[in-house]
Amino acid sequence: MGTVYSPSLLALLFLARVAGLAVAVLVLIWALAFKSSFLTPSLSQQDLLYAVLHPLLMVIGFILLSGEAILVHRWLPGSRGFKKLVHLWLQGVALGCGIFGIWTRFQGKDGVVANFFSLHSWMGLVCVSLFAAQWVIGFLNFWHRGEGRRVRIRVLPWHVFLGLYTYALAIATAETGLLEKVTFLQTMRNVSKHSTEAMVVNALGLVLALLSAFVILAAVSPKYQTIQTKLLYSDTTTFSS
Description:
- InterPro entries: CYB561/CYBRD1-like, Cyt_b561/ferric_Rdtase_TM.
- This is ascorbate ferrireductase (transmembrane).
- It is a multi-pass membrane protein.
- By secondary structure, this protein is an all-alpha fold.
- It has a single domain, classed as Four Helix Bundle (Hemerythrin (Met), subunit A).
- Helices cover 78% and strands 2% of the residues.
- The chain is built from 7 helices and 2 strands; from the N terminus they run βααααααβα.
- Strands 1-2 form a two-stranded antiparallel ribbon.
């Protein structure tokens, strides 16, 4: 009995790629075209570089790459071992970007304590810590040949749940960061609520929410649709007509 990719899955993968591209474009526009928003009188040019790198690393490096690692099992051809290897490396690069992205916030004049006070910062630290633990567990249970099959089977549901939960937490953390930044700009710098920058940031938050929906739904959707199921559906439709 033949199998084909589910049309709904293909549509979700396409929408996830479009949303991911839109997120990358919007965060680049925000970070590069509105650099003055990341620069305060107390910051040096080196501090400005760290401030601009933070959203780029956390959104493009951490969120987009970790989302792509989730989708690898949905679209990448090849053996299961090859898919697991690509998944592992993409998650590893995303983890490196996340760690470096947090490190950029601890650099500069204000130091660690001054940058670790908000809900956004707390959620970010928890998210990257969970992600690191998830990566280590995934490596030990799904890549290391010495682990038993029974252990891998027991860990798999928790690995999938924690992976999707951590990804959703990363999206939520990014949303709180965007809200925090826009609130600061509007209250401290009198930036208009209808300014171009506010619209860019709001659009970025909206597309991030859409991206998470597409990625998570694609991850839990059936990968294949049997030809027999398609024929039965067609026969039922014809009979009903």
